[in-house]
Specification:
By secondary structure, the protein is mainly α. The chain has helices at about 1-10, 35-50, 55-65, 75-80, 90-95, 100-120, 125-150, 175-185, 210-215, 225-235, 240-250, 310, 330-335, 405-420, 420-435, 445, 450-460, 470-480, 485-490, 500-505, and strands at about 70, 270-275, 275-280, 325, 360, 370, 380, 390. The model is unreliable at about 1-25 and about 255-300 (pLDDT under 50).
């Protein structure tokens, strides 16, 4: 079903430069409840495909001028050094925004046609119709937000234009952000906290399935997801007052009743299940670990490529792979995790042995430490002891982590610090630090500037989750004390160049001065 959806949804000429077969727009498509469900999950599938294609999420956020360095690949080295006009296939592919526009085109088409199912199939009730439209609007908004962080100004397209597009220039970010905001604010009231049949926005079974099914397949868009996107959209724009409102909603609304949640108690941790190292991802809501994965399917998502393990996994956790494609150098680890009690990574100052046995890295005795925080190998048949062991085929099922409870807490701390609420920021920062067995932040006199401490904590806590580059840009904007980086901002150098292929096909597209 997904294959049949994905191929035509890549379709647009000129701006997207892929011809549409109109298979999903066929007159027989928009008729039944099953058609509606297929089209909805087709948008989800395209969204995940856009983020995973060529490991975009990892490379955009954690390789470009970030902590992970390439071991040998020269294309990754060029990206790491911000040489994004280099003549490498990977760079040209990552400079191409068409995978995101495939999501957007599918969303536009869905919003234009889904009323036909509502009119034809009485099983497709008003509640499901409203709920599904809200999810698709949020997915479209997320795709645009993601593109704005990567490319800055992008063409704003809000109709499907099946068959062909007229050439269109890039629209200013402010115009795109206004459309994102409108979609999210329209979607939020129609979305539940969870798809468990309890909230008035979604009662009973959803498409005949219970909540456990949707946790297994990856989280559907909820109110919390919308709040997360809004919080980050406002923070990216420097509007910390509005960002704080939505980040606070996440921290306050971990249950359906008013009151505070479990105090950022669940940071992202590895779980050793027999010999299979896995990650916990339960959700913002009503869970002991309070981690979440937005828009990232898990069940059935086995892959050998376009997963973070393709870049980071190697011996000793993958015996048949000698070195990883990217790694964090030992000197960087010493500098980043410089407090010897840190549960995420710590080395004994005397013995030089790693003290955090279940932490983020392993193989410290080898030239290239191996990142194991996100490591979800496929378990094959049980061994003689009846324990499922990792397959040596290099097949993985890791989620794409966009945000989670502690990430949002640290964003709220950033907001409070930017708004000069230092006590509020310190309180959140220390919840995270104490949970990771590091001493509490006391004051700027004792521990240095508060905003620096918050971003250092984000760097430690969110390693490998695709945040480092975007955090660095926000940090530099707040500090505003680096003329060289300010020039990078002014000339468009903080964004990726637009693919040369796209510009050659659409002369109305322009390149930022930095990349000309």
């Amino acid at each position: 079903m997904l294959i049949s959806l994905l191929l035509p949804l890549l379709g647009c000429k000129k701006i997207l430069d892929v011809g549409s077969t109109r298979a999903i727009g066929d007159v027989n498509m928009w008729s039944t409840l099953e058609d509606a469900r297929a089209a909805l999950f087709g948008v989800y599938a395209l969204n995940r495909a856009a983020m995973s294609d060529n490991n975009r999420h990892v490379i955009y956020g954690d390789v470009r001028l970030a902590d992970f360095e390439p071991t040998s690949r020269i294309d990754l080295k060029a990206i790491h050094n911000n040489m994004l006009n280099g003549d490498y296939k990977l760079i040209n592919d990552l400079s191409d925004w068409r995978p995101f526009y495939a999501t957007i085109n599918a969303a536009n088409l869905y919003l234009e046609r889904i009323h036909e199912v509502y009119e034809k199939d009485k099983r497709f009730v008003e509640q499901t119709y409203n709920l599904d439209r809200a999810q698709v609007k949020a997915l479209r908004a997320f795709a645009y937000f993601y593109m704005c962080r990567v490319w800055g100004d992008v063409p704003l397209i809000l109709s499907s234009h099946e068959g062909s597009f007229t050439n269109k220039p890039r629209d200013p970010q402010d115009k795109v952000f206004a459309a994102i905001e409108q979609d999210l604010l329209e979607a939020e009231p129609k979305l539940p906290y969870a798809y468990d049949g309890i909230d008035p926005e979604q009662t009973g079974a959803y498409y005949g399935q219970n909540v456990a099914t949707y946790y297994g397949y990856g989280y559907l868009v909820s109110k919390q997801a919308v709040w997360t996107i809004l919080a980050h959209m406002y923070a990216w724009r420097g509007d910390y007052a509005n960002a704080a409102i939505y980040a606070q909603k996440i921290v306050d609304k971990t249950t359906r009743v008013s009151g505070s949640g479990p105090a950022l108690a669940g940071t992202f941790r590895n779980v050793n299940d027999g010999l299979t190292v896995n990650v916990r991802y339960i959700g913002y809501i009503w869970s002991a670990n309070n981690t979440t994965v937005l828009f990232a399917a898990a069940r059935g998502e086995l892959a050998t490529s376009d997963v973070i393990e393709e870049l980071t996994a190697a011996d000793p956790i993958v015996p048949n792979r000698r070195i990883p494609a990217i790694y964090v150098p030992k000197d960087s680890l010493f500098s980043i995790y410089n407090e010897g009690t840190d549960a995420r990574f710590a080395v004994d100052s005397v013995t030089k042995l790693v003290r955090s046995a279940d932490g983020f890295f392993t193989g410290f005795d080898k030239p290239y430490p191996v990142f194991r925080k996100i490591f979800v190998p496929w378990s094959s048949f049980p061994n003689k002891q009846g324990i499922n062991v990792p397959s040596d085929l290099g097949v993985f099922a890791s989620p794409i982590v966009f945000s989670r409870f502690t990430e949002m807490g640290l964003l709220l701390a950033e907001c409070r610090a930017a708004l000069n609420d230092k006590n509020g920021a310190i309180a959140i920062l220390n919840q995270v630090r104490v949970n990771n067995s590091v001493p509490a932040y006391v004051s700027e006199n004792d521990n240095g500037p508060l905003i620096d401490a918050i971003f250092k904590e984000r760097r430690r806590e969110l390693m490998g989750e695709g945040w480092r580059w975007y955090d660095y840009v926000r940090f530099k904007k707040i500090k505003n004390n680096d003329p060289k980086f300010n020039q990078l901002i002014q000339s468009g150098g903080i964004y990726w160049p637009v693919s040369r292929t796209l510009i050659s096909q659409n002369p109305m597209l322009t390149q930022y001065p930095y990349w000309k």
